[in-house]
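quick q for whoever's on today - can somebody do inverse folding on this one?? i tried earlier but teh output was garbage lol. tokens:
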């Protein structure tokens, strides 16, 4: 999945740490084998290469993630769309080797025309490739992986842990001293170069998850402009607004992951409006080139009080 993972565990005496590590690695390897666009033999890659009219039997985990992805695509009006793969590859943020050039308008429009979540049909555990659809589940699979690792650990009898995959976190129980798993919301890099400091936000993760989406880790500059890896499925191009970071807290890390991306795409006005209307716990950080502004949704304010 192109990232790292870690797990902090509080173990009963005598529990086999090596067996737990191997179990976690097996869970993650299975998710990669099903949903990684970088693995040519993954189920996702085979679907993307499939001809029009081909039905693909989906393994259980991919079926669950794709079903959730399509549901959130509909609920967000396409601000999140799991069929954005062609645009991701065009801009050099997928498995295709990046060249850090800006594609022309025709190429952007052509890739954008292949992005339409409603073209993916699921029936009886199978998905229909209607022709040219390119799935990309990277904005939801990391969070799902954290949930799956948590499920594995709970079934193994581990009830106190903090799992992290690519910056997305899922916590259960408490630390050895009985204190909660306190985590601090990620500060955008833009904040480091400014005299204005965003207030530190800490949250206890016990039966909860937190995920952050932003455009500071993967980007390129061309012609004096910065292009981030988060694309708007509705335009097929990188985001072009002041919102630079969104953090979501939710019991499900998969839900937090996909919503952080969707709210980031929705932008500095529609994002907070959507979070308020759906009672989502979310933090928004906007940067206009001079000033930072933080907005907390009502649900997150209530959670922090």
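ok took a stab at it. sequence:
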């Amino acid at each position: 999945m192109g990232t790292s993972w870690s797990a902090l565990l509080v173990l009963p005496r005598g529990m086999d740490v090596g067996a737990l590590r191997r179990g976690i690695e097996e869970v993650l390897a299975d998710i990669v084998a099903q949903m990684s666009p970088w693995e040519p033999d993954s189920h996702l890659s085979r679907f993307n290469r499939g001809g029009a009219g081909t039905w693909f039997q989906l393994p259980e985990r991919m079926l669950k993630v794709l079903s959730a992805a399509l549901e959130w695509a509909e609920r967000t009006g396409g601000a999140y769309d799991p069929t954005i793969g062609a645009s991701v590859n065009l801009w050099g943020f997928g498995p295709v080797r990046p060249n850090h050039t800006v594609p022309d308008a025709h190429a952007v429009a052509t890739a954008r025309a292949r992005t339409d979540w409603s073209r993916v049909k699921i029936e009886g555990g199978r998905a229909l490739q209607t022709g040219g659809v390119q799935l990309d589940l990277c904005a939801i699979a990391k969070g799902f992986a954290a949930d799956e690792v948590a499920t594995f650990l709970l079934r193994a009898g581990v009830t106190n842990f903090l799992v992290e995959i690519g910056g997305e976190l899922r916590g259960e129980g408490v630390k050895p001293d009985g204190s909660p798993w306190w985590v601090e919301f990620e500060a955008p890099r833009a904040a480091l170069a400014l005299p204005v400091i965003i207030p530190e936000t800490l949250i206890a993760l016990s039966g909860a998850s937190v995920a952050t989406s932003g455009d500071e880790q993967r980007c390129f500059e061309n012609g004096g402009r910065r292009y981030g890896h988060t694309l708007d499925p509705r335009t097929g191009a990188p985001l072009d607004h002041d919102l630079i970071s969104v953090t979501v807290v939710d019991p499900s890390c998969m839900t937090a992951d996909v919503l952080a991306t969707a709210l980031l795409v929705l932008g500095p006005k529609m994002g907070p409006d959507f979070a308020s209307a759906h009672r989502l716990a979310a933090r928004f950080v906007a940067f206009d080139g001079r000033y930072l502004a933080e907005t907390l949704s009502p649900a997150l304010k209530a959670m922090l009080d």
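fwiw Residues 64 and 285 are 31 Å apart (CA to CA). also The domain at 168-304 is CATH 3.10.520.10 (T-fold). so keep that in mind when u check it
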